[in-house]
Structure formats: C-alpha cells, structure tokens
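Saturday, quiet lab. Running sequence design on the structure tokens for the scaffold JK sent over.
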C-alpha cells in the first residue's frame, strides 16, 4: 500500500469561478499573495475591492444584529487562501464580502481550553479550563467556568443556540456553555458533520421569534479525525482511488491508520503521504462551504440574512507533518499551525479586505459584541479589537490529566516564541518569512520584550493557579 504513495501526489486544486461579475475567470490559491482579483474563497483581494491594512479592524456596528458563528473544530488557518493557504475551500461563498483578520491566536491547542477562552473572553489562567482526563472524559475537576458570551447575550434578550458535533465540549466546560438550547450531532461515516449541523441550525432558527435577535454557534467536526468522507467533497483535491487508507472504504479515515503509515514509511513515502493528507484535509474544510452556503440561503429565505453578522473561525489548528516531524493531530505543543486561528467576518455594511491585528481568541467575543451593537462583557480580560490590537497574544499548553504547565507562547511583532516550562528551551518562529512558522529564529535574535511578555504570562499563571509553575521562564 505504501509503495503506491510515490505515484500518488495530489492533483492541482480545481478551478473554481470567483463569483465576481467583473472577473469570470478563476484564480489559484497562489495568486492570493500576488494581487489576483479574488482569492476564490470568498475574500476579495485587497488590491481590488477590499483594503489591506494593519491595526484595529474597521467593522461596521449594527444595532441588535443576529450573530452566527461557525466555530469549527481543528480548522487550520492554512485552510483559506485569504491567509495564504493553497486550496480554494470556499467557492460558493465567493460572492460575500469577508474581512480576513490576520493575527488572532488561540489560547491553547485543544477544544476545551480554547473554546472556553472564546466564550468567557478570558485566558485559561482565569477561566481555569486547562485539561481533560482523556481516560474518563471528565474535564478539569468541574471548575466554575464563569459567565459566557451566550449567558451575556441571553441577558441582552438574544435567543441562543449551540449546535455541536463535539460530544465532549459540555464535559470539558463543566456543562457551562451558557446556551439556551444545545444540540449534539455526532460524526457519521460518509456524511459531512458541518452540513448536518447547519441543517439542524436552520430548522431551529426557523422556529425562533422573528422579533428577537439570535446568537447561534455551529461547531463542526469535519477537519477533526476521524475524517468522514462525504461524496460531495470527495475527489475535489485528491483522487479517492489514490488514498492508501483501508478505513476509507467505510467512509471514515482514522488517525491511527494515518499514524501507522507515517511510522512505517520511507522519507519519500512520508512526503507523498503528507501531500495527500493535506489535500484530504482541505476537502474536509471544503464541506464548510456547502454547509454555510446552505445555512445562509435559509437565513435569506427567512429574511434574516441582511441583519446577521457571520463569522468563520476555529478553536485550534492541526499538525499535518508540516515540518517533516511526523506529528499529526493536536494537543502536545504550541507550533504555529496549532494556535494560529482563521477569523473571517461578514455582515451588514462591512466590506471585504485583509487586516493584520494581533489578538487572542479571548478578544473575539468582545469584538463581535461591538459588531452587533451589544453591551460589552464586564470583568473580562478580552477586549474589542476595534479599539486596539495587542502587542503580544498569549497561549499555554497544560498537560493532559494533571493541568501542569508544559509550554507557554507569545505571538506578535512578526514572531512567535515558545518556552518549555520544564527546561530552558526557547523556540522562535519567523512569521514574516513564513506565516505558518516553518522558519525559526536563532535564540540570540529573540527580542528582549518577547522574553518579558513570556515572563508576564508565567507570572500571571502562577499568581492565579497555585498548582502551576513555569520556572524555566525565570
């Protein structure tokens, strides 16, 4: 089976039409960095209609607008050409104007810790969702998570709904997501989880009171193992006959089989497998286009789309052997591909473009509250990015089952610096040379203010969490 990989490189991405009236031709993902008219994933190139700028994002405020957040599990920033990705994964959404906010970083490398930061607008050392017992599924000793974005909007008179494919989310957040209604739909072989969730969300929205706004969050699992191979996306970026996964015959690709192929393969076979895997992953992201497009069509039919702020983002990314280190998955380090998050915003009165603004995912909730004209959350560290960008965005990795600090990281000023809490090892990534962090910076070139930011994060962690220390920072 592995021998087939050497002849199984992924075909080039298909040509999707841009969806713009003034440009009937398609563009490749590579053209998004060189001034093409449209990126093909719904984000208009800044050199044409949109703007390309640095600083706080300019987002039109719409009083009591609806809020629809597609908060996809394990969705890489590289999934979108708006951020330099290779594959065009949002062809059907190309006629919408998206503002791509570049520079948002997740607080952690797995769902519970990062989603808690999004919902509470606080970093992990405040909300204290730091780990999950992988053997029992119990999360972090049932700590009090605190008031969430959903709690806040319910008090503001919003109808709230969470539709998720992640069965552990409620456990990891100790049942404190704060939504008035929660629906769980598991991954099913041969079906897109995103499409199933979007269909369920559309049904629930159709039953809501038209006189009151809504906050709906859809958490799809398509880019998370096991990969459910839906026929609608199969073959878009890679010929399914070339996939060397036995489990694919059942409509699911399991991570264990992928790991085993990497362990047993030669260097050449691993390189070919990496290309196939990244193309297969992009097809999982492509399912979002179908799901979100159908959901927006339903909102349009209900007369709600014109008053809805739509957001595409994620909880964390995924390693797909990006550095040739055979790391597949997430949860064990703070590499850039694991904590860099996509953030695409579309809504009433907002134009297309690309803005570079350093922020944490704890800032996303306050940013969206400002966009829908809602009152801000009180007593939180997260802040609306419309006011200011951060100098450094903070992330932390805590050990499974114990919550012990393993790594901390700060991202900003064109670099990301990661520090091990158990020794004096620092790794810095040059995000200017390579936005996806495959170029490192020599330790003697790490700026002093990055070390100061790391020390500040470690100090805040140790002050708030008596059982946590990161002595190597000092």
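Result came back. Writing it out in full:
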């Amino acid at each position: 089976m592995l021998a087939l990989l050497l002849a199984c490189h992924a075909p080039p991405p298909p040509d999707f039409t841009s969806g713009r009236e003034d440009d009937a031709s398609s563009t490749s993902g590579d053209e998004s960095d060189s001034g093409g008219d449209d990126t093909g994933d719904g984000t208009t190139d800044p050199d044409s209609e949109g703007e390309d700028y640095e600083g706080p994002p300019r987002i039109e405020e719409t009083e009591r607008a609806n809020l629809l957040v597609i908060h996809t599990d394990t969705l890489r920033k590289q999934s979108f050409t708006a951020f330099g990705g290779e594959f065009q994964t949002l062809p059907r959404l190309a006629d919408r104007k998206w503002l791509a906010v570049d520079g948002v970083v997740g607080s952690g490398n797995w769902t519970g810790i990062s989603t808690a930061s999004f919902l509470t607008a606080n970093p992990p050392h405040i909300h204290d969702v730091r780990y999950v017992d992988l053997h029992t599924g119990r999360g972090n000793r049932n700590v009090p998570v605190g008031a969430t974005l959903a709690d806040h909007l319910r008090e503001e008179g919003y109808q709230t709904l969470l539709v998720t494919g992640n069965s552990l989310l409620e456990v990891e957040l100790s049942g404190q997501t704060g939504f008035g209604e929660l629906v769980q739909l598991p991954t099913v072989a041969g079906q897109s989880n995103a499409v199933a969730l979007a269909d369920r969300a559309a049904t629930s929205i159709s039953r809501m009171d038209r006189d009151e706004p809504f906050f709906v969050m859809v958490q799809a699992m398509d880019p998370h193992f096991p990969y459910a191979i839906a026929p609608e996306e199969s073959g878009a970026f890679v010929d399914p006959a070339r996939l060397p996964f036995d489990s694919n015959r059942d409509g699911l690709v399991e991570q264990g089989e992928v790991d085993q192929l990497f362990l047993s393969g030669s260097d050449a076979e691993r390189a070919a497998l990496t290309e196939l895997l990244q193309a297969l992953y992009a097809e999982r992201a492509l399912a979002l286009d179908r799901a979100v497009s159908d959901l927006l069509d339903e909102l349009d039919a209900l007369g709600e789309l014109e008053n809805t702020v739509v957001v595409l983002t994620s909880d964390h990314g995924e390693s797909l052997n990006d550095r040739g280190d055979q790391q597949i998955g997430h949860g064990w380090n703070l590499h850039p591909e694991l904590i860099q998050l996509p953030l695409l915003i579309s809504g009433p009165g907002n134009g297309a473009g690309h803005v570079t603004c350093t922020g944490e995912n704890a800032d996303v909730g306050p940013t969206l509250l400002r966009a829908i004209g809602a009152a801000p959350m009180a007593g939180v560290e997260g802040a609306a990015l419309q006011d200011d960008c951060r100098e450094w965005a903070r992330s932390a990795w805590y050990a499974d089952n114990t919550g012990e600090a393993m790594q901390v990281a700060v991202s900003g000023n064109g670099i990301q610096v990661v520090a091990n809490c158990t020794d004096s090892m620092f790794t810095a990534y040059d995000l200017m040379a390579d936005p996806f962090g495959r170029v490192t910076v020599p330790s003697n070139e790490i700026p002093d203010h990055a070390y100061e930011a790391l020390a500040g994060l470690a100090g805040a962690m140790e002050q708030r969490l008596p059982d946590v220390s990161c002595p190597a920072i000092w």
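Notes for JK: Residues 415 and 430 are 5 Å apart (CA to CA). The two ends are 50 Å apart (CA to CA). Ask whether to fix the surface positions before the next round.
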